[in-house]
Structure formats: C-alpha cells, structure tokens
Structure to design on (406 residues):
C-alpha cells in the first residue's frame, strides 16, 4: 500500500469544503486552512441560498454592452462598475468585452449549465452517502421578467438551455401567479417568468459545517482555523504554504480555493488569474402577508428572494472595481427598497436586520478556473454568483483533473 498523499486546501468556503470532500473520498489526507475561526464565513455565509441549477446565464453578453456607460457612471442601482487603472482590472475588462458576443454568451452559458448539472448529480450522490441536513428544499425557481424586451432576451438563452436538456420553460403572468401567488401582490406588471421546477434552496453555511464534520469524523481531515496563508512555494516533490505566523506546511498538493483572493497568492508565482471581486449584499426580514415559497429572482433589479423559515432572505446588487468590506448603509437601503418595490408584501421590511456584504469571485466568461498550475499546485476559484450552485460540480471536475495527472 502506497503512502497517503496530503492536500493543503486554502479556503474553507463552500468551494474549499466540497473540494476537500472530493479529495478525501479519493484517498487524500486533507488539511483545510482558513483565516476565519469557522468555515464558510466569506461569500458562503450571506449568499442567496439558492441552488440555481437553471440560472446559469453568463454575465458578459451583447445585451450588457449598451449598459456599460451607465454602469461605470453609477447610474444603475442594481449594478455599478468603478474602473481601476491597474493591469489586473484592465486585463479582466478586455477579456470581458471579448466575451460579449452572442456566440461567446451561448458557449459560456452552456458550459456553466453543464457544470451546474454535474453539481446537482454530485449533491444527490453526496447526500445518499452522507445524509447531512442543511434545510434543503426543492421549491422551484421563478425569474420575473417585467417587459417584452426582457422576454426576448430570455428566449435566446432558454432555447439553448432547453436543447441541452434543461427543464425550464417560459410562463405567462397567469401561469406564474398560479405557481407563486405572492407575485399577484407585485405593484408592477409581470410580462412573464422563467420557471425551473427542480431548482432548490439550502443553507450554505450549515452545509459547510456539516460536511466539515463528516470530513473530520469519517475521513480524518483537519481544519486549521484562524490560519492565514501568506505565501506558496513550489518544490521539486512537494509544495509548501507559509502562514502569517511563520509556520511552514508541506503537502503533495496545494489547492487555492479562497475565491476572489486567489490571485493574491498566485500572482507572485507568475499565475495571473482573471478573477475580480464583485461585491454583493443581503439582508433578512420577518415574513410579510404574501411571502413567496418558491425562489424568486427579479431579473431587472438583480435581487433574489428566498424563504428561510420564519424570515425572507433578499440578496443582490453587484459592484465591481472597488474593494470595501464594510456594509454601506446607503447601498443596503437600496437593496431593501428594490425588494419593497418588487414584492412589497413579501416581508416586513421595516424590521430588516443590519445586513451583510461579501465578494463573489468573477471571471470574464463566468466560468470558474479549475486546473493544475504546475506540479503540486492547483486552483478552484471564480464561480462568481453561483458558488453555492457550482460547488459540488467544481469539486468533481477538480477530482477528475487530479486523477488524470496522477
């Protein structure tokens, strides 16, 4: 019997924890390293909790090009871009523009859809093997379309995804309200809605904690909490991580899975990943008189509504180019007002909590970066707004790559 290989995984969000599971299942000894005291305290903490296997449209598209001047001038509440005059941002922006063609949009959307389907299958397999609880609900997903223009744009992607086997269809307003009566309380007209009956919700943070416990108890994995990685070094036979406290960790593999911060560790090694941080917000509020039970996305406002028991979770807004980890009260208020304008009876917005903000790791083509970067060094990052959705599939894809390189 050969020596058990050790994998050092930087980042204990949902991407790091699911990667740890795939590797541990394959026979690796796994050590998870995170600067926080608990797993999933970054973007995995306050996300929209939606497993949106159907909603995989790439951000870069021909439709976003005319909007860019307004986005950069801060004229849109839902999405803002603050340009930075540094190489990383300019390089990312150039790649993004090259992906704003119809052919690239279709290719990227279908690639992410395939990864989402792999995630769905992998999640089912995980839960059959380890039936952990994380408030998983198959409640379906409705994407509200407010105008005929939105419907026209949606039809192109819908046709491509249906041809790839996705169970999603375009509903009339009456059909959408029949599935989710809460939509009847919207003060604005609904032109239609996309409906995916098999989409789910679940508590990502609870999932990560439960899966980490499985990893510890059944696979002998280790969690090095409150341990910040300062640098990575590659040797001939092993890779090393140097922690902020000076401690040196050695392993057969170093996997960088710390989201938008991945370029900070990999750039000194010559690996310039096209990943930029996209700031988002979320808040919860007590349920209102017409709280939705299905997952709701208001396409125009870029917000999502999720039923989380006695409260409604609302997440949304996208900001790129400016790194500020604080909750901006003005921007949070705009999320609350967007939710109120969309579904005024969904929640008691006056009793909303203090809110949360975090950073999603975005790539120019909306596809994550999952690959070997050299002997003993790999990356799994860049899942953008779909980290929770794509985590299990990304881990399986990583597992396959490592088996091929073994």
């Amino acid at each position: 019997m050969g020596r058990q290989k050790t994998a050092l995984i930087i980042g204990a969000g949902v991407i790091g924890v699911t990667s740890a599971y795939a590797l541990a299942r394959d026979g690796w000894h796994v050590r998870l390293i995170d600067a926080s005291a608990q797993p999933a305290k970054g973007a995995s903490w306050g996300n929209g909790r939606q497993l949106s296997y159907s909603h995989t449209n790439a951000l870069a598209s021909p439709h976003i090009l005319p909007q860019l001047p307004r986005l950069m001038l801060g004229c849109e509440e839902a999405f803002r871009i603050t340009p930075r005059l540094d190489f990383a941002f300019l390089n990312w922006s150039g790649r993004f523009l090259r992906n704003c063609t119809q052919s690239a949009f279709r290719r990227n959307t279908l690639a992410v859809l395939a990864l989402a389907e792999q995630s769905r299958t992998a999640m089912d397999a995980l839960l059959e093997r380890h039936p952990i609880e994380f408030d998983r609900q198959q409640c379906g997903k409705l994407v509200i379309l407010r105008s005929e223009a939105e419907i026209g744009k949606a039809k192109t992607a819908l046709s491509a995804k249906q041809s790839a086997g996705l169970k999603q269809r375009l509903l009339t307003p009456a059909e959408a309200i029949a599935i989710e009566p809460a939509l009847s309380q919207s003060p604005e007209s609904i032109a239609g809605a996309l409906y995916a009956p098999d989409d789910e919700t679940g508590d990502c943070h609870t999932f990560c904690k439960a899966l980490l416990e499985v990893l510890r108890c059944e696979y002998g994995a280790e969690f090095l909490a409150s341990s910040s990685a300062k640098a990575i070094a590659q040797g001939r036979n092993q890779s090393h991580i140097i922690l902020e406290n000076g401690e040196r960790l050695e392993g057969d593999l170093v996997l960088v899975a710390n989201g938008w911060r991945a370029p900070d560790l990999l750039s000194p090694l010559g690996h310039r990943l096209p990943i930029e941080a996209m700031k988002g917000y979320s808040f919860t509020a007590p349920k209102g008189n017409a709280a939705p039970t299905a997952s709701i996305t208001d396409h125009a406002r870029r917000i999502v509504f999720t039923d989380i028991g006695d409260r409604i979770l609302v997440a949304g807004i996208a900001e790129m180019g400016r790194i500020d980890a604080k909750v901006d009260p003005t921007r949070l208020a705009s999320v609350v007002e967007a939710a109120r304008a969309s579904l005024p009876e969904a929640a008691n917005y006056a009793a909303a909590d203090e809110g949360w903000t975090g950073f999603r790791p975005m790539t120019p083509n909306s596809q994550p970066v999952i690959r070997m970067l050299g002997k003993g060094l790999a990356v799994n990052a860049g899942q953008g707004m779909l980290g929770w959705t794509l985590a299990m599939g990304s881990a399986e894809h990583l597992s396959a790559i490592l088996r091929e390189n073994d």
User: Anything to note?
Assistant: The longest strand covers residues 276-286. The longest helix spans residues 102-129.
